[in-house]
Amino acid sequence: MTSVLSASGRQTRRVADLVRAGVSGAPVSISLLVLMWVLGAATDNLGRPSRYVTRQFASGILAFEHGRVWTALTSGLWAPGLVGYLVATVAILLAAVPLERRMGSGRFAVAAVSTQVLGTLIALGVSEAIKVVDEAWGFRLHVGVALSPTPWIVGVAMVASSSMNTLWRRRLRVGLIMLLATLALFSGHLLDMVRLCSALVGLALGPVIVGRSARGPRLAGTQREGRVLVALVVAASAIGPALAALSPNAVGPLAVLRELFRGVDWTPSEVRDLCAQSRTGEDCRRGLLGLRLGGLGPTILSLMPSVFLLVLSDGLRRGRRFAWLAAVVAQVVLLALSLLNFGVRYVGFVGEESLFYGLDSPNLYRTLAPFLTPLAVLILLLVTRRFFTVSAPRGTYRRMWVRLAVFGVGLGVAYALLGLLARNGFDRRPAVISLVADYPQRLIPPVYLQWLDPRFLPNDAMTTLLYEWTGVLLWAVSCIAVAATFLAPAYGAATGGTEHARSLLIRSGGSPLSWMTTWRGNRYWFAPDDVSYVAYRVISGVALTTGDPVGPRESLRATVTGFAEFATGNGWIPCFYSVTGELRAITDSLGWAGIQVAEETVLHLDELEFKGKKFQDVRTALNRAEKSGVRAEWISFPDAPLALTDQINAISEEWVADKGMPEMGFTLGGLDEIDDPQVRCLIAVDEHRTVHGVTSWMPVYRDGRVVGWTLDFMRRRAEGFRPSMEFLIASAALSLKDEGAEFVSLSGAPLAKVDTRSDPDPDTVSDADAEEARERGTLAAVMDTVLDLLGRTLEPVYGFRSLLAFKSKFQPDYVPMYMTFADPAALPSIGNAVGRAYLPDVSFGQGLRLVRTMMRSS
């Protein structure tokens, strides 16, 4: 008994400590929460909305017309019924309290009051204006009331977003605005309008109340984040009609789409009696439509296209090309249906008896409104097409279509056989031919069948199950099959070739940079003996390779000549980029020209020890990490917990935003490249599991085993442990040494090099060779000068030379990396191809910023 009491006392003390911590850290939020419940109880408003509260304290146009101007503020202190109070409580505890701690109580209070009052006033003004274009919706807004704390909660969230890091600022704003806009357009109540306007007010007042992020309002982001934002928009467009369907009182301009999901309850006997009098009469057709739309099965079947769009949203988030194509087709279909709706209502080419979208009175504004949503989403998909280039492994969709076809045919056979066995349960006994002909209609959302008279209708439980749920089953299986294809490993537009290239790379090995050949964007040329390959991409007529060919070193020369012949045979200019001195020696012997484009830094691990004065910075980083409680931890990004990967995403997006330019690609990896089971990530985390920095390491193979690792991805939290990169690289080198690795490469620094090599001794070069080299190298020397100038002018933006200087702290061996080409006269085209390879998605505005930065630095 004593132990029970003591345990109860401990729990009580924990709750009390938690409450005290909340009150001390967020006094305004907790006070408003308590006040909300006290006022609700005092005014008998907790069970269901009190008429007294609704009349005296809820905001609305009628309240203002009667002089109750205080309702713009007081409407945020009550909630509409018990569910409203519970939702508001959760929102305050999960959102308002953390935001107050972040912003400070004074700023939080200013944000809450200003967004609540201004958002309400603007929403009332907008509601008055809406009556001009939509009298029905405007009337509902005119007589409606708003009573909820959610407007000031979303307003404060938008205010706080102004000072958030780039990733969460962008996601919060896009996600919240899309959600609130969807509610306003579909549900359409005054409270929805107030919430949306409060959020927009918070968006405008954020910089004034809390200031901007240290990195300002830059919107540059990675391709990965662009996919997430597009997926959010497509998901919102899919959820909207479902929200309207599930809301019995939806009045928004897009609420008409709920007719796609719901119908009037009719029984087969009632419909049979109506149709016996007149098969083409309005009552008969309305009854048939009601049977098709009513009930659980038809409702779920009508929701399945929205579910399918949600599945496609996940594919868009992953960058899948199939998801983009399917989403485009879906939006085109929705556009066609909207145009058909317009034709039915205003052109009349289907006939006055049509029940398309119900029998509401035609309204031009409401008829065109459903057209605008798929049009906007379609335009967004077309504009962002470049984000969605990832294809599934070869044969994935062929197998999917075959399996779905087999399942569909089998389901059709089952429908016909079971229907034949249970045909006495239909209002008309169908023959096999009728059942087979009716099967395709069972797969279509029922609202689209309203112009077709049903051949027969179910009368008992068995036939109802067969009639209404056959289509649901096929749609569900289709959604699962499509979702499964998004989980299949994919490496870009040439996934099939990438899988084969990976197997060859693991089997034979390559240079320290060879794992980059498996990155997205590469195409592959495989040697006739299928033991070597070249990874390349064609840009402006230049076949630009990624590093050395992969394969046995004894066949390197044959691989180079074979690929050069392949490229020239296709009308391309062959160019090997970021290659080793071994490959340059081969191309030099073929009469090609070459220039140095980067400097690789290599640490040999057999005798590595961070001792002596030259490693002082490295030892300092290791010691500071130990004192600060920061430790290094190996993870695999695809399998890591969301709590870690989300932080890595945020750190990366903040880094990109800080540049104000797109993330570079080609030989510089990003988040897509670390999302690979064979790439290891070393992160710096503290005792609170806060990620301070992250590095990624690519395997280097020789004869089927890993002999080294190459550094690629490097990101550090701006406000985190400052020497995290020194700490992580040193920790990785020591850890990999213990694992038996021979070396680690710190990768190459583009457009940066160390001048430690001398020209060849003229006494060892013949006159003919010297003359040929001079002729071959004149334009190459010009290009080398241009690249040197470009490296200096790009330094303020991307800092490649600073990166090379940073790597010198580890006292590496320097290995030059080259670009070799057959025709020096093609250097302008090659230079253009290299630039577009590194920055394929640079916009006009970003280009202007880059030019301004280069001009300031010159």
TrEMBL record:
<feature type="transmembrane region" description="Helical">
    <location>
        <begin position="226"/>
        <end position="246"/>
    </location>
</feature>
<keyword id="KW-0472">Membrane</keyword>
<keyword id="KW-1133">Transmembrane helix</keyword>
<feature type="transmembrane region" description="Helical">
    <location>
        <begin position="196"/>
        <end position="214"/>
    </location>
</feature>
<keyword id="KW-1003">Cell membrane</keyword>
<feature type="domain" description="Phosphatidylglycerol lysyltransferase C-terminal">
    <location>
        <begin position="504"/>
        <end position="820"/>
    </location>
</feature>
<dbReference type="Pfam" id="PF09924">
    <property type="entry name" value="LPG_synthase_C"/>
</dbReference>
<feature type="transmembrane region" description="Helical">
    <location>
        <begin position="295"/>
        <end position="312"/>
    </location>
</feature>
<dbReference type="InterPro" id="IPR051211">
    <property type="entry name" value="PG_lysyltransferase"/>
</dbReference>
<feature type="transmembrane region" description="Helical">
    <location>
        <begin position="139"/>
        <end position="160"/>
    </location>
</feature>
<feature type="transmembrane region" description="Helical">
    <location>
        <begin position="472"/>
        <end position="494"/>
    </location>
</feature>
<dbReference type="InterPro" id="IPR035952">
    <property type="entry name" value="Rhomboid-like_sf"/>
</dbReference>
<dbReference type="InterPro" id="IPR024320">
    <property type="entry name" value="LPG_synthase_C"/>
</dbReference>
<feature type="transmembrane region" description="Helical">
    <location>
        <begin position="21"/>
        <end position="42"/>
    </location>
</feature>
<feature type="transmembrane region" description="Helical">
    <location>
        <begin position="400"/>
        <end position="422"/>
    </location>
</feature>
<feature type="transmembrane region" description="Helical">
    <location>
        <begin position="368"/>
        <end position="388"/>
    </location>
</feature>
<feature type="transmembrane region" description="Helical">
    <location>
        <begin position="108"/>
        <end position="127"/>
    </location>
</feature>
<keyword id="KW-0812">Transmembrane</keyword>
<protein>
    <submittedName>
        <fullName>Bifunctional lysylphosphatidylglycerol flippase/synthetase MprF</fullName>
    </submittedName>
</protein>
<feature type="transmembrane region" description="Helical">
    <location>
        <begin position="172"/>
        <end position="190"/>
    </location>
</feature>
<feature type="transmembrane region" description="Helical">
    <location>
        <begin position="77"/>
        <end position="96"/>
    </location>
</feature>
<feature type="transmembrane region" description="Helical">
    <location>
        <begin position="324"/>
        <end position="348"/>
    </location>
</feature>
